[in-house]
Amino acid sequence: MKKLLLLTLAIVTLTSLVYSQTTPAIKRGGVIVYEKDGHGLVAAPTDLGPESYYGSTSRPWIYAETGCEKLVLNGYSDWRLPTIKELNSLYKNMDKIGGFDKSGEYWSSNEDNYGWARCLLFIDGKQYWNMKVSGLEVRCVRTFSYLTL
To answer: Are 135 and 26 in contact (CB under 8 A)?
Structure first.
C-alpha cells in the first residue's frame, strides 16, 4: 500500500512538472508575446473554435474579425485580429505561445477594398493575400499598457 501511494505521488508530481513547463503562464488575459516600454501584445492561449463562428466550421475573415471583437476571455473584452506585423510576431514566438496549427494559415486584420485580406502560413512564415471568404485559422490578440492617462 505504501509503494502504491509513493508511486501515485511520483506520477502526480511528474505530471505537474511537465504541465508547468509546457503550458505558458496566462497574464493580462493570455500569453504575453512581447512588452517594451510599458506596452505589449498578448495572444489568446488558443485559436478560436467553431463555436466562435456561430456553429460554422469555416472561418471566413468577417467571422474571424467578429469572433475576436466579441470574445471575452479571462476578464478581457478588447480582443481583435492581429495586424500582419503582429501575426508575424506570433509566428516567431509560436512555440512560446503554444496551441497553433503549425501547418495552418492565419488571418490578419490587414485588408483591401476588393475582398482580400493578408494572412500568414505558419508552416514557413510566408505572407500573402487571400480572399476573405476563405476559411482560415484565427488567433485573437490584445494590446496593453502600464501607463494610465
So the answer is: no
